[in-house]
Amino acid sequence: MNELSQLTEINFPKTLDQVFTKQKLLSGFVIFLASMLFLSLVGLIWMGVKGPLVFSFDESGRAIDPMKNMQVENQIKMALKTYVDSRYNWDSQSIDVKIRDAKNFIQTKNEKVFDKSMNDLQKFAKEKSVSQKIYLESVHLDLKSHVALLVGDRVTSIQGLKAAGNLRLTLEFEEGRRTILNPWGIYISKEKEQ
Q1: pTM of the predicted model as reported, rounded to 2 decimal places
Q2: What element of type H or E holds 133?
Q3: How far is it, in rounded angstroms, from Cα 134 to Cα 169?
Q4: Which residues contact 66 (CB under 8 A, 6 or more apart)?
Q5: Which site among 44, 58, 74, 87 is 20 to 30 Å from 139 CA-CA?
Q6: Residues 167, 115 share a domain
Q7: Residue 187 to residue 178: CA distance in whole angstroms
Q8: What is the residue range of 121's domain?
Q9: Tens digit of each residue's pLDDT (9 = 90 or more) over 128-185
Q10: For 8, how many CA atoms within 13 A lie in the half-sphere containing its CB?
Q11: Are residues 98 and 186 both part of a single domain?
Q12: 56 backbone dihedrals φ, ψ, rounded to 5°
């Protein structure tokens, strides 16, 4: 019996040492997990506050210029068609509203020139009871030079007399601030009819 108590006394410090070692290991593991949780929360908050970062890649994994993306091209076409609809489809009663809508696609630095040219058109349309409607056939974009060629037909009515003709419209556009009235952020910088 004396031998058994002697073995227990000898093993007690080893057991106590093992318990403290396990406790240190567990407390170290808890500290590690707590720090990982803290870093994860900080990262999650940072990602939630920061806006999304979008990367585009082609099939081979090379980065794509966002302007070459088909969805972007369709969005630009939609913006240009909306501008053309406001700028070129009107009658003598709706021309003021339509031109005001078209002005949403003109940047502030070009507004004076736009207003001057549109004032003459509005005055003429109201005096002579003019209406205009265009029917677009195609929209060709050159995304590198930011130029669009729109081809279609124009029907103009002056005091009830109608005339139809071809329309070739070249629009130079640039990207700008997106607004509620211009959600695409596409602005017309130059316009030329041929």
Answers
A1: 0.64
A2: strand 130-142
A3: 11
A4: 54, 56, 72
A5: 58
A6: yes
A7: 10
A8: 66-193
A9: 999 999 999 999 999 889 999 999 999 999 988 999 999 999 999 999 888 888 888 8
A10: 5
A11: yes
A12: -115, 135
In-domain check, residue 61? no
Pair (184, 96) in one structural domain: yes
Phi-psi region of 61 (alpha: psi -120 to 50; beta: other; left: phi over 0): left
The answer to whether residues 148 and 170 touch, using CB atoms and an 8 Å cutoff, is: yes
Contact in structure between 64 and 57 (CB atoms under 8 Å) = yes
Quick one: tokens of 174? 């640039």
What does the radius of gyration of the chain's CA atoms come to, in whole angstroms? 35
Phi/psi at 80 (5° precision): -65, -40
What is the count of structural domains for the chain? 2
Distance between CA atoms of residues 136 and 153, nearest Å:
6
Question: 174 with 146: CB under 8 angstroms?
Answer: yes
The two structure tokens encoding residue 71:
């969805």
User: Residue for token digits 């020139």?
Assistant: 113
Structure tokens, 168? 């070739």
